[in-house]
Amino acid sequence: MSLEFNNSDGNYVRCIERERQALLALKRGCTGHGGDEELLSSWGGREAQKQDCCRWQGIYCDSRTGHVTQLHLGYQYLRGTGLTGRVPESIGQMSKLEWIEMANTSLEGIISETHFSQLSRLLALDLSDNSLAFNVHSDWVPPFQLENIALRSCKMGPSFPQWLQTQKKVLDIDISDAGISDNLPSWFWEWSHKATSMDLSRNQIKGTLEHLRFEFVYNPELNLSWNILEGPIVSSILFLNADLSNNRFSGPASFLCDPSVSNLTFLDLSSNNLSGELPDCWTHLENLIILDLSNDAFSGEAPITMGNLISIESLKLDNNKFVGGFPSLKNCTNLRALGLENNKFSGPIPKWLGVRFPDLVILILRSNLFNGSIP
User: Fold this and answer.
1) Cα–Cα distance between 178 and 310 in angstroms, integer?
2) 212 with 186: CB under 8 angstroms?
3) How would DSSP label each residue in 239-296?
4) Three-state secondary-structure class, residue 141
5) What pLDDT digit, counting tens, does each position of 76-113 carry?
6) Whether the Cβ atoms of residue 181 and residue 158 lie closer than 8 Å to each other
7) Distance CA 255, CA 250 (A)
8) Which residues, 6+ apart, have CB-to-CB distance to 342 below 8 Å?
9) CA angle 297-222-239, nearest 5°?
10) What's the CA gap between 83 and 23, in Å, rounded?
């Protein structure tokens, strides 16, 4: 599709009048932090350029038909000013819209089914970081099939939004901090075979991961942190970036021995109920850059094969029950942050600590049984 931005010159089709009126309704309902005239001064007016909505700030049109296809009205696109006010239902009449981006502003109020009544072509919806609340029926079937869903901080709970089950083409979804306090439905993982990013953090989502099958293809980034998920962790959800911190996961860390987790670059398992000795099977995790195992109940000695984490830059093992000598990390020369505090590590601090880590800027060893001095 050929898209034309609002400040283009030359011969082209002017915008559709009913869509122009819908945008003017949006302007009437919203103002800017710096004043309405400063924010949307190009919207409306007697001049020919201001009458054509395809020339307005933040509006993209199809150059062949004049239909509005994209709204970019977020904080980033409006040069740091941002909208404040309510989103009018007339936006749902702009039937050719494919992209709505109104993130990180000060919009408030209710988002209903009417806001999307004719948006059958919508592919991307970003209303993140606003004071918006979704109020739709539990059996609502949207007219669109979204690929990108970004609704961080929009209130969608307390029940898990059932309308999401109708979306079969999702690639990226962020419904973090959405006020959801419900069980994680099994159908949510139907997107796993094609998703690239899934963020459900900072809710009160319950449930377990065991007995579920995941078929990730694109090594997605997964953030389930700050929920109340429990039970064992399964290796099939650990691809590329995985943040499972601040939950109630329990059991040993044997899932780390599965060769399928070798693509991990970021893993945060902190503040759970994981326990037992760490398995000595870290050789295949040479891509891991950040590992956080703090605030769990791990015990025993740090495995020797942790020294094969040649890409590791940040390693946190603090607030566990580890014992034994200083972890064998001599070959982890990329370390920038190392936290071992509040364990029962003992013995001398190795001399290589002072020479092998030229980029080390954070080193926390307190509340252990080490002796000697730091090189």
Assistant:
1) 38
2) yes
3) SSEEE--SSEEEE-SGGGG-GGGTT-SEEE--SSEEEEEPPS--TT-TT--EEE--SS
4) coil
5) 766 655 678 889 898 998 999 999 999 998 899 999 99
6) yes
7) 12
8) 318, 319, 320, 366, 367, 368
9) 85
10) 13
